[in-house]
Amino acid sequence: MARPGGPATIRQVALHAGVSRQTVSNVLNAPHRVDPVTRERVGTAIEALGYRPNRNARNLAARRAGLIGYRVPVQDTPNSFMDRFLHLLTAEFERSGRHVMLFTGAGVDVYADLVAQRAVDAFVLADTVEHDPRHRWLADHDVPFVSFGRTWSGCQPGPWVDLDGAAVCHRLVDRLHDLGRSRIAFVGRRGVPGRFLDRLRGWKAGCTALDLPSDRLAFAEADTVEAGGAAMRDLLDSEVPPDAVIAVSDPLAVGVHREVRRQGLRPGTDVAVTGFDDSPMASVVDGGLTSVRQPVERFARTAVDLLDSANGDRGVLLPGRIVSRGSAPVRLTEQDVNEGESG
Amino acid sequence: MARPGGPATIRQVALHAGVSRQTVSNVLNAPHRVDPVTRERVGTAIEALGYRPNRNARNLAARRAGLIGYRVPVQDTPNSFMDRFLHLLTAEFERSGRHVMLFTGAGVDVYADLVAQRAVDAFVLADTVEHDPRHRWLADHDVPFVSFGRTWSGCQPGPWVDLDGAAVCHRLVDRLHDLGRSRIAFVGRRGVPGRFLDRLRGWKAGCTALDLPSDRLAFAEADTVEAGGAAMRDLLDSEVPPDAVIAVSDPLAVGVHREVRRQGLRPGTDVAVTGFDDSPMASVVDGGLTSVRQPVERFARTAVDLLDSANGDRGVLLPGRIVSRGSAPVRLTEQDVNEGESG
DNA sequence: CCGCCCGTTTTGAGCGGTCAAACGGCGGTC
DNA sequence: GACCGCCGTTTGACCGCTCAAAACGGGCGG
């Protein structure tokens, strides 16, 4: 079945059509400067031989790689939407004939090496850390990139997309308040200082705007169900325990949820519980877990747009969508629907 | 900071070291045929200019792509270990200087196109379906590939790796029997006839070997918690309900677990429940869910080995590891530890 | 009838490497 | 001293494509 000698080359097509190789090239890249008759004839030859230009050769001549580097993150926390992000990112780049190329090395040296080898044209940084050194290095070396996630307090080098955690947390507070909740707690994460800071700020701002206290605050030691339960225990120990809890992740929320039940309280009725990311877990807990769905598709699309437009250090915040379930049966408003319309 | 004119070329290094370009090439590819003194001098020049051979040019000359195609699956079911697989696969290929290149198209034509463009050297097929047409096409066209998962009943074209579902299910039955269980049920999936057939067979074989009945069998309509619950309801309706359930996935097992509790029974005590894949969910249910951990690392390593050895249509089955938790507190034996040692 | 212009096609060079053959200097053999 | 083989190095060609400049040929105005 395999064509003898592998795929056809531009020369073979040229020979077959009785023209020079450049004419074949023109048919593909600048058809307007080729006579319609020849164009037709060359087209037939291309069809007949099943010709597709050799990517490698083409890229060499064009001094590009046609590839976007993406470090595939070690799944420390089962961040359920990163695989969807990767899929959508791949699809997005394909629209312009580029592909995502994976690698694993963590250090800046790995990025430097890929650049030196001309293995990729640009990078998408996803597994960002606090004050990530890669952003600075890439910006300094004029390597195009886009960051999924903010990591630089103050001005961050290069373009980025991220969830507007502040806005969605503010809205969560509003919706919980609509439900009659007035003691709304927040469960964050210890050890990742900047990471969910905007969510915390949004929660605080929401409380303040409604004249609610914002002193019910606990930090989990890890992103696990157990740590979430422990944090909730702390909150329930206080004199006036919360009647609603916003947790920064689904595992933590599940832990909170479980602890609520353990203490003989009813989640969703006595204590409302919300999580983040709308992971598979969210449908595992009985009654379902209210969560915030990340606009993954828009993340991917925006990332590619930012990379291509290349207009400086622009950052884009996208709204999350509240997914209401039993653990906090909030009623969404017009605003919620409009803001988070694109899941 | 960026080197003017981009990364250095082999010519620049040659000039810098006062040798010809071929000598530089030899230093990198066949150092033994270069005089140690020159080798040293060229090495210094390489260091000084930070030279790294252009991947594109090198690959063009070598008529290869240095890339392995991997279709990033649409996450229909949150198969929590696929992202780990991808990570490990990437790491494994990096050992030999290759990278994983992603794409999304599903059809055979997409594969044909990538081959025609010489965009990749080989494929790893992961999201396999029943009687997958890709295997046959790739084999017929002499395109190297390896499959993660069996899909062809009878003889499957090309090499493959898969979980030995029969063996691990047989062992599950043994361990549940050790726990005193004698009415061991099996919850499969409707609509994917061949997919978990080996697990079903292993369960049946295990039951038969112990003279236990193997008629307690239910099929879930989808891979969800709800469907698992529904299937369990059917099983519990029978005259003599099961005292143990092996479900083919964690979501199903969670559904079973929940249903057990709903009927006032104690999971792990009255009814033992086991799942598959050891997903994050497994630690969400109270007491933990006993599950089968897939040997993802060995999958990746074996896949790459098979691809490179290229000795025909060999298939490899790898053992799963039983992870014991509260839902079925089985005691693992020497055999279990030996077989499934590499998680 | 000639020269010019324009649209179309071809030729040459180069992208940055590698392979293969040619080359030059050296010591050993007859 | 001529010849040989060997080692280390260089030169030429090529991988498959694109860009830029040159060549071609027909229509047209002078």
Q: What is the radius of gyration of chain A computed over CA atoms, rounded to a whole number of angstroms? A: 26 Å
- The ordered H/E elements of chain A are HHHHEHEHEHEEHEHEHEHEEHEEH
- Strand-residue fraction of chain A? 5-15%
Look at the structure and give the mean pLDDT of chain A. 92
Q: For the largest interface in this structure, which chains are involved and how many residues does each contribute?
A: A-B, 58 and 58 residues
Which structural class fits the helix and strand makeup of chain A? alpha/beta
| Extended strand count of chain A | 12
Spatial ordering of strands, largest sheet of chain A: 2-1-3-4-5-11
Helix count of chain A, per DSSP? 13
**Relative helix content of chain A:** 40-55%
Distance between the termini of chain A: 45 Å
The major sheet of chain A is characterized as: 6 strands, parallel
Please, what is the oligomeric state? homodimer
Low-confidence segments of chain A, given as residue ranges, are none
* Rough outline of chain A: elongated
Main features:
homodimer; 343 residues; 13 helices; DNA-binding
Please provide a written account of the structure.
Two copies of one chain form a homodimer. By secondary structure, chain A is an alpha/beta fold. Helix content of chain A is 41%, strand content 14%. Chain A is built from 13 helices and twelve strands. Chain A has helices at residues 10-17, 21-29, 36-49, 55-62, 82-94, 108-116, 133-140, 165-178, 197-209, 225-237, 250-262, 296-309, 334-339; strands at residues 67-71, 99-103, 122-125, 145-148, 160-163, 184-189, 217-220, 244-247, 272-274, 291-293, 315-318, 321-323. In chain A, strands 2-1-3-4-5-11 form a six-stranded parallel beta sheet, sandwiched between helices. The first copy, chain A, is elongated and about 90 Å long. Chain A starts with 9 loop residues before the first helix and ends with a helix. The relative contact order of chain A is 0.10. Chain A binds a DNA duplex (30 and 30 nucleotides) through residues 9-11, 19-23, 25-26, 29, 33-35, 38, 53-54, 56-63, 118.
